[in-house]
Amino acid sequence: MKIKHLLPLIVLFSFAQNYLIAQDKLNIKFGKITPADFDLSKQKYDTGAAAVIIADIGSSEFDGNNDGWFSLDYKRHTRIKIINKNGMDAANVEIPLYFSGQREEKVQNIKAVTYTLEGGKVIETELDKKSIFKDKYDKNYMKVKFTLPGVKEGCIIEYSYNLVSDFLQNLQPWEFQGDYPVLWSQYEVKMPEFFNYVFLSQGHFPLEHSVETSRSAYNISRSNTAGSTSHTSLSASVAWHKWIARNVPVLKEESFTSSIHNHISKVEFQLSQYRFPEQPVEDIMGTWSKLATLLMKNEDFGASLTKSNNWLDDELKPITQGVSDKLEKTRKIYAYVRDRFTCTGKRGILLSASLKTTDKNKNGYVADINILLAAMLRHEDIDAYPVLLSTRGHGYTNEIYPLVNRFNYVICGVTINDKTYTLDATDPSLGFNRLADECYNGHARAIFPDIAQAVYFNPDSLNEKKLVTVFIRSNKPGEWTGHFTSNMGYYESLNTRSKIKDKGEETFFKNIQASYTGEMELADKKVENLKELDQTIKVEYDFTMKQDEDIIYFSPMMNEGYKENYFKAAERSYPVEMPYVFDETYIFNFDIPADYTVEDLPKSTKVNFGEADGFFEYIIDKTPEAIRLRSRLKLNRSYYEPEEYNDLREFFSYVVKKHAEPIVLKKKK
User: What pTM was computed for the model?
Assistant: First the structure.
């Protein structure tokens, strides 16, 4: 199923159209700070903020360079007021720089000043250039870092810099939202008609966007081998784009959010075409097919999958010996890799070592292990292939454009008898054809030699079913005995296995016992299917409760009811994204003690959510001897738009309130 809401808003701008929309201007100059600038009492922002971004202003434009081509000149100027100590992290600045081979982006003209107000006067403390550092981040990025000096509560910090880049594909993106409220955020991009970019915008905060057109000359020079320099001047129509956002709130992370970065208001750019006079249009952005071909030829990705890999013969022979069925072979090889290889944790789509090295060391990154799994399966003539996806925390991919940096995870796909299986051998707790819920993030791509086939991991396809039954009776005055059974869903089973692995089964049950109020003893404790990873877990125990008061208030939901509403905020500006849909049933059977009468009982109810999106039912029945309760909560969708948030919040508030209602028993006289 295609998830249309997962796609960011994508607009391909043609620079021959989209003209001026009037904008206001912000007059702010570096170093021009007055005592009045420290007073933000008339500004609109969250008064609980630890810092406030007064202004964040950026621009990018193209310049002709001395290498016979163009460079990008990016400027940024930021002014922030530190409200309290929790906002001091805003004084730590990092500037990422891209490099490839001998070429690298350069940062220039760094200026940074801290302003404090002392005795009605503005005191300046400038950044010492010796306090600027450069660290390598990975094989293609380094970071320039500095911390503004003398930062304290109430001060204003200001910094600016230029970034010059010869990598035209790296037109700088711009985020209008972040960790602090923003009074004014502005970004300008001046684009000559020679370059066509795809604009990708996202977020729920409205941006003001305007476009003006003008003409500009670009002077390009190049030194030749004879020692002379050639000069060229090109005149072009220029589209001047400007985005402004005012009084931007902090986007606070709340429960049921895949990644807050999916919802931050921002603009990004992807170089699409070169369009030079009297020359054919040159497409720069590739296609999914081209990406697949490049990846499958890449030694750091799929090249090894096209080889015979005979070095695997001796290793795989004892695993598959006597097995002819391809599905059974797949199960055995998957279990072998999952149980004997250790994932060192780092994600990404490229290999960190050769498959031979990974196999020898029996450890590696996610891509190393899952591509090795695919190689082992292909060695046995099983149709296996890598699948690229983005985990929920990493953000959404782009279904239209082959933006490889949007992917951060590789799994192994297998097709047997026209049925597809998805495998991740990096998690020792996963069963066959199971993925962690974080992998269910919509659009993904299965990579073959000449095609990148779209596949979808929809959270709505995961149905987490749970059934709990409780039986209670009174065998003697003052004492209740009962039996508890929980048939967990798959992902609760994963979580339970993790808890027991970390702390042990004894601690697991001690924590259950401690979660009950009053005196309770557990006995005959069992955890079924703990090591059967393809199965869900079943937890059972007997319990004894002391109950001898004249009036007894107790919850028939025991510890299984919803005790708080996950949706606490009064408003929400971005969607609710649950990891799966769920269906939770709770059955309670209570034999009324002979020495008590029922004084009060919750009422039955059923509430629908939407027309067919889910429901909550609470059906309770009383006979002279017993009380029977059936509570069921079912949601059929995992994704809810901001406009649906209030209804969802009220729905869960009702569930919490209903689950808190007690049964009241009164002792007979």
Answer: 0.87
